[in-house]
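Friendly challenge for the regulars: who can give me the structure tokens for this chain first? No prize, just bragging rights.
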Amino acid sequence: MLGSRVALLCFKSIARCLPVSRSRLKSLRPSRFAISRGFASRTTSQLKKMSMSISTSPSPVAAPELTDQREEVELLPAVNDYYGGVIVEMKAPMDSGAFASSLRSSISIWRKQGIKGVWIKLPINLANLVQPAVEEGFWYHHAEPSYLMLVYWIPDTKHTIPANASHRVGVGGFVMNDKREVLVVQENSGRFHGSGVWKFPTGVVDQGEDIYAAAIREVKEETGIDTEFVEILAFRQSHMSFFEKSDLFFVCMLRPLSSDIQKQESEIEAAQWMPIEEYAAQPFFQKYDMLKYINDVSLAKVERGYAGFSPVCIKSGFSHAQNYLYLNSKDLSQPSRPGNMSESN
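First reply, four minutes later:
Bragging rights claimed.
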């Protein structure tokens, strides 16, 4: 039976190739074609194998997967910080789409490495990368005139990334001469402008500046008087709600090295030496406890040897720069080191 089917199949295949009419082909019979036993046997064997293969295959053979021809995504350059995180400092321009792909791939790798916090520093000329970073879950940490810092927390836990710098540091200089006169100024702007109030020279500590150096600088800038730092007499902390920061203000005692006043800054209306009693008797100072305390502490230093905090130069394990520890050197029986302070100026 199978042999006759093979003959019929062979007949039909050969007929398709013959240059004869369809009517002539219909009259032909497979029996008229001589098919050898060997050919029939081989053909039958092949058909049996094909039939068994088809019947035993549960499903068609799947086509091989296409090889991924995409280029490997470049990871973002990063350095480790001291707290299990990484710092990425972007410098060269980059397409926002390419940046987003690199950022996702980098986060995936960092997650496997157990990295926690991620810091990305974006210069102002790479502001186009802010949006893709925020879309990946980064948030603003702080901004400076030339860059924006973004952060991201990888683990599924509460983050421990420290807040941005939360304090502004100010200084006020209490300077008294041998005549019991204090160095005072009137402001040309600010809340004391036009009030007639005489106050200590004050200002804000510059970035990276030590407290003692800031006090010396502010007195010099506002009055032209050179001074030597003695002690921190007291400090105050207050909250600045608009800026969401705290204000630290240090009352510093300085020893005058000159006496001729030369008003320097345009924000200062006038400067002069004033008897301490006249200074303390100003009506404005009688309204506020803080101002009265500052005056009392300053007098206590002059008259009763009130011990404040003087700077001692120390070595720190966290920085190679000079550091100063402010302490009560009088009760500690350890002198301060003004020589070291002058060396750092």
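The mean pLDDT is 80. The longest strand covers residues 227-240. Your move, everyone else.
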